[in-house]
Amino acid sequence: MSKIAFIGLGNMGGGMAANLAKAGHEVRAFDLSAEATTRAQGNGCAIFPTVREAVQGAAAVVSMLPNGKIVESVYTGEVIGHAPAAALLLDCSTIDVATARKVEDAARTSGYEMVDAPVSGGIAAANGGTLTFMVGGSGAAFAKAEPILAAMGKAVIHAGEPGAGQAAKICNNMILGATMIATCESFALAEKLGLDLQTFYDISSKASGQSWSMTSYCPVPGIGPSSPADNGYQGGFAAALMLKDLKLAMEAAQGAGAQVPMGARAAELYAAFTAAGGGGTDFSGIIKTL
Ligand code: NAD
């Protein structure tokens, strides 16, 4: 087992670092928040006062941070040139494709191998070690990253070259945002047309309207498998994070010259929902506005 530095012990990173420790790795952790480090210490991680100290002697550095700006400043300021040159760098945060590529380029120029490895799955999956990782990087870097990520997830998929993990993540979540709204709208319309909602679910879940948003995460309470709708839209995947991912998708689409009218509308609707105070609730709660 190896020495792994872990930076960013929040809602997601806290559980991920704990799972690395549980798998027998020596986890050298850092976060700006004392609450987060105390929790990580209780979960078997050793806490260091700075990133530079945490990465000393590490065979790998894993990060789970809020956004691209922070990822760039942590890697260029405190990891690159401070971690051993042989250390594999793995950023699991959800960030924009351009920054992911820029940071990987800076790492490679300094002799490091780096992957972008954003995740699908929320806090429960991070705690339970059942995340799905989509990984961008060279084949050699992926081969080294796979066993480390496997200790925190149920699936580790090579998406392609550097930045491809982030590209897969935002394209996936653009489908999710749009299909969730479409599912919510259809249930709202079905109700207004006098359909029994369970009956509509029984039909549509076996017909061409079926999607993950409907059959794994139904936004209507009491219908389909248990979901945040059954819990007052608490927990799950916050609408503010869905909005973050949709904004990243819009940015990427603009840069690539892609037409994304449905994604753009989903971003507008989640922006309005968040502005009206819904940002902290699960993203399926947008049904309440329809
Ligand atoms: P969070 O805000 O709970 O955690 C982020 C942590 O980073 C915090 O503990 C914060 O103190 C720490 N941090 C910030 N700046 C730092 C710095 N310079 N050095 C060290 N630590 C620093 O966020 P989260 O929900 O854990 O999300 C982390 C990432 O995972 C985000 O990119 C998010 O988009 C992505 N993500 C989240 C979810 C989810 O359901 N929460 C799902 C998939 C992906």
Give a verbal description of the structure:
With 290 residues, this protein is of the alpha/beta class. The protein has helices at residues 13-22, 34-42, 51-54, 68-79, 97-109, 123-128, 139-150, 164-192, 197-204, 212-215, 239-256, 261-278, and strands spanning 3-7, 26-30, 46-47, 60-63, 88-91, 113-116, 119-120, 131-136, 153-160. It has a six-stranded parallel sheet with strand order 3-2-1-4-5-6, with helices on both faces. Strands 7-8-9 form a three-stranded mixed sheet. Helix 1 runs parallel beside helix 2, helix 4 (68-79) packs parallel to helix 5 and helix 8 (164-192) packs across helix 12. The structure holds nicotinamide-adenine-dinucleotide. Nicotinamide-adenine-dinucleotide binds at residues 7-13, 30-33, 36, 64-66, 70, 74, 93-94, 119, 122-123, 237, 241, 244. Nicotinamide-adenine-dinucleotide (NAD) is lined by residues 7-13, 30-33, 36, 64-66, 70, 74, 93-94, 119, 122-123, 237, 241, 244.
Uncertain segments are none
Largest sheet: 6 strands, parallel
Q: Give the overall silhouette.
A: globular
Number of helices: 12
How much helix is in the residues? 40-55%
Q: What is the CATH superfamily label of the largest domain?
A: NAD(P)-binding Rossmann-like Domain
What is the domain total for the residues?
2
Please tally the β strands and state the result: 9
Tell me the CATH architecture of the largest domain: 3-Layer(aba) Sandwich
Could you tell me the radius of gyration in angstroms? 20 Å
The helix-strand sequence is EHEHEHEHEHEEHEHEHHHHH
